[in-house]
Amino acid sequence: MVSESTRTYLPAAGYAWSLPLYDPIVKLLGGDKARMVLLDHAALQPGYRVLDIGCGTGTLATLIKRVHPDVEVVGIDPDPKALARARRKAAKAAVSIQFDQGFGDDLPYAEASFDRVLSSFMFHHLPPDEKGKTLRAVRRVLKPGGRFHMLDFEGPESGSHGVLAHLLHSSKRLKENTESRVFSLMRQSGLADPRKVDRRAMLFGHIAYFRAVG
Question: 35, 77, 158, 206: which is deepest, by most CB within 10 A?
Fold first, then answer.
């Protein structure tokens, strides 16, 4: 068994050295607008407890708290450098967010403890053998009737990748993001009624919005 200290992960920007460039590049390419659409789909209500899985530098978590100050927001990510940026970002925005270091397939939270779990540009980072484990962990921490909302690059079956998407992400990782594959993994994890609820074009290609019920 591999210990947490020796586990590897793909940083938000693909490489540790490029982390400072991640936020400005994603913003330039329309990432902030894409995340706002994800937040609209989530239909948050006052008092909800929300988990941002693979929160990276905390952009989505901070956005959630700014738009919905009456919800509790928790973000988790394995990258300590990204989490440091996330905490600074939240402090600058004067919002209170709990940021934890950890992996999505081993969430350190009680069963049925979140009303929503959100994921933004994270799923394609996971190796194939961790995708199902992560979705099962999401299912475990969702309250009955709670929802998982995911935003990510579309798989190659859409035939609509931009050149930048191929530069930033390997074909192998994108291949695992096909609609049929995502639906299959969601069902196998115990998530119900998986759907693709939206699709948008960005400068680097198309992105898709998925939803499933806990």
Answer: 77
